[in-house]
Amino acid sequence: MFEILTPMFLSLIVGGTLIGIIFGAIPGMTATMAVAVCLPLTYSLGLENGLALLLGLYVGGISGGLVPAILLGIPGTPSSITTTFDGYPMAKRGEGEKALRIGIVSSFVGGIISLAILWLFAPTLADFAIKFSYVEKFLIIFFALTVMAALSSDMLLGIFSGVLGIFVALIGTYDITKGGNGNMRLVPPGTEYWLDSGFSLLPVLIGLFGLAAILEQAEIGVPKGHSLDEIDVGKKSGFSFSIFKGQSVNLTRSSLIGTFVGILPGVGGSAASIISYTNAKTFSKTPENFGKGEPAGIMASESGNNGLTGGALVPLLSLGIPGDSTTALLIGAFTLQGIQVGPLFIGNNPGTWDAMIIAMLIANIAMLVMMYVAIRYFALVVTIPKHILFPVILMMCVIGAYTINYGIMFDVWTLLIFGLFGWLVVKLKLEVAPFIIGFILGPSAEVYFVKSLESFGDVTIFITKSWIAVVLWLLIIGSVTGSIMLSRRAKQNAATS
Amino acid sequence: MGQLTQVTIDFETSHLLFPTIIACVLGLLGLAIVIRDRAKIATAGTYWSGIWQSMDKPRFLGTIVLTLLYFSLMVPVGDIWPNTGRGFLFCSIPFVFLTGLLFMHERTIKSILPLAVVSLVGPVFVWWLFTYPLFLTLP
Amino acid sequence: MKLTRRTLLAAVSATALLAQPVTAFAQDLPRNIRMVIGSTSTGGDTYQNSAIVAEALSEKLGVNIKVDAVGSSEGFKALSRDKRGTTIMIFHDQAYLGNLYGRQGYDDPFENYAVGPTVAINPGNAYLVPANSPYQSMEDILKAAEAGTKVRVAIQPGGVSEIGFSAMKNAAKVRAPGSEENIVAVNTGSQSDKNQAMWDGLADVINGSIQANEQFTQLSADDQKAMRFVWITARPATLGQAPEAGMGGTTRDDMLAYASPQTSVTLDGTEDFTFDKEFFMLFNKDMDPAIAEKIDTALSEIFAEGAIQERQKASFFIPNYLSIKDANEHLLKKRNTYGKVIADITGES
């Protein structure tokens, strides 16, 4: 089992993880892109070594996203959106380094827990995952959507923003590859040429979070100085491991949620951290602190999205079905080498299976060590003068938008449209966080909702389908009542003070 | 009872079902907001003119204009040398420089020089990285 | 062992290619060519195929070729915009099937673009049933439809995944007019959705592929995920070129048993319906034909050398080079055959 641990194997994992972190940390570059550009290399590297590189990229890419999410408020990858909710407020009040450390450790915990689950239970879990039909998947998405209410400071405006996000996500064709009929809707006449596939997630995301933030700065005249004046590089970060005390339930639960969402084909990578975050807030004793710089929020988000890494490999290796867009590329790596993936993969290829587990383990450790060491350098980003940092971020956003779908100029225009939209949304007192969550989950919500009715022909199916559905309803009700109570309490507090 | 809950979805028109539901929900929520916040909405004019007045117009509008130019020129410039990414390269250098200049407060040689270096090295490095090692298409 | 052999092979073929006079063709060709493909996945069959072809072509012609997985709709847009030959496309039968099924974003490729040479076949298109299904064969399925039993088939509508389903309906109609009504589509999306539709009991038959579903056919019959092939749509001559060992636990002979003529889904009562997913090039209609000519010649030489076939077969593709002229003839004929099938079954229902 350990003869695969050649210097080549090890250095590919570490190198892959490093490149992945860099990709993840640059707004607009994603883990998927890192894996995609390195995929052709694996042909000459051979299977085990190729996988070592790709898995390193995957783990690094998912983890690196927390850096700009915390320091700049721009999610480096779609799955780190929820990290911005608490990470950026922490950074703004001078706890950037602390937030980074929390995020990195949580990422590591999520990665390791999900890896353990992958290693021990992969085939069993895959058998459980296929019990989730359209109905259960819709309910999971619905549960994730309830976080919209919890995230908004004004519930009515927040939910409106979220539903608007869903609405905007539906523009374009009802995607045939997801089960739709390929017909166009909600496309204004005359724009069919550009809008036939709707707006892509990544340009929308970096427009809303990146360009819009820069426009807001431009509006107030780009005040002199650094983007975070109170950043505490080199000073005492105020971080100690005691912060994780009392959070082991949150960390474990979030990692498990991330893992499980990864296992469900089609629910999607970004949903993992959103659902973990929703859960953490629902079960928290201090839900009112979420969104204002609550360390537990970062823990939930980061352990959730790294939990995805092991989870998404479960259906890949035990059903031959990818759990997210990055693992979809790994199928390519296998077929390039003439290896079949499917329910017999693990049994037929024990050597490769072991190599993958070991590579993931090493990648997680490498990620932890490298990111921990690099915190100081990450934090330097915010010491760059704004008049240099902002134009460069804009340029990187353009690259990210253009390359995400391999060269589509409309994605760059999407960036501008949603940059302006993001600026306008804030002025209209609407809320960006629910909007983007609605936008991300909208298409899946549609397919699973419509397909549930199409297949079962009865609206009661949402309750009667299975015990899983009932459990999901309980979670949904818990999350909604929690948000309502929270908003009541906030109003009372406002009234008394 | 059983009849009431039954639905038949025609696949050919199923693309309209969910958007219709969402549009209705959106309309209702919008209506609720209009009713609840009617007082605020009535004063929207002053709110927006306040925003317009306090805005740093050169920087805000300048950013938008520069971005528009940047995006519009990238493809035509790139078409002169097809599939080489030079449209991106040759448009990014002035864009980064001019935007930086726009955002800068004291435009002294000492502060312009680092910007000039970054606006030259940044795009060139990124262009090289994407064109050669990463082998991705740029405009 | 496999790896060493393959690495060696790659090294040898690379050296052989380098020895060629690489600049001989390059004068009129654009130096940087963008090859768009009709799929957005860089892990899928279209991308793999295109990458193999792009690499061989770029070595042969001494030009840079980048493969961009922009998807069908964006791919066609990029192709129509560029008359200079700096953008070319690789796609498969979906290009005209999407048009035949009237899907949005699909123009007639023979009219709006110049159809170029074919390069490979993915022979994997297949139909499967659950392991415990009462249907042992296509014959059973068609008989069931004749007897008035509804047979639900999970497909992704509007193209390659639907054509076999259309053929089933057509065969049912040829055998017993009216029975095609009993073969109904369950419209789903990706392979995972189709499998799930089977496991949820929503479909009796699913569209799948040898590559993605073979391992499910090797599971013990009491496994809830177990499946059986009932039909592989490839032409027997195509499957005959597949490696003898086949794939996983299914040998080439096993596969042939599910394909025509042993498994017959009739086209018109005499001939069998077959479908091979063929990958071919598309050019801008107004592109200089000399460029297409150069690419075609280069491809014919690449295939004559023989190294590309090894790479294609290693990824379970069947090498399938047809020159521009032959490809047009062949694909047009194929299109017309399927056009008739689709028209026949939609004309009445």
TrEMBL record, chain A:
Pfam families: TctA. The chain crosses the membrane at residues 12-45, 51-74, 99-122, 128-148, 155-174, 194-215, 255-277, 355-375, 387-404, 462-486. Keywords: Membrane, Transmembrane, Transmembrane helix. Coiled coil: none annotated. InterPro entries: DUF112_TM. Signal peptide: none annotated. Residues 11-437 form the DUF112 domain. This is Putative tricarboxylic transport membrane protein. It comes from Thalassococcus halodurans.
TrEMBL record, chain B:
Signal peptide: none annotated. The chain crosses the membrane at residues 16-35, 60-81, 87-105, 112-130. Keywords: Membrane, Transmembrane, Transmembrane helix. Residues 17-139 form the DUF1468 domain. InterPro entries: DUF1468 (IPR009936). This is Tripartite tricarboxylate transporter TctB family protein.
Automatic annotation (TrEMBL), chain C:
Residues 1-26 form the signal peptide. Gene3D superfamilies: Bordetella uptake gene, domain 1, Periplasmic binding protein-like II. SUPFAM superfamilies: Periplasmic binding protein-like II. It comes from the Bacteria. The keyword Signal applies. Keywords: Receptor, Signal. This is Tripartite-type tricarboxylate transporter, receptor component TctC.
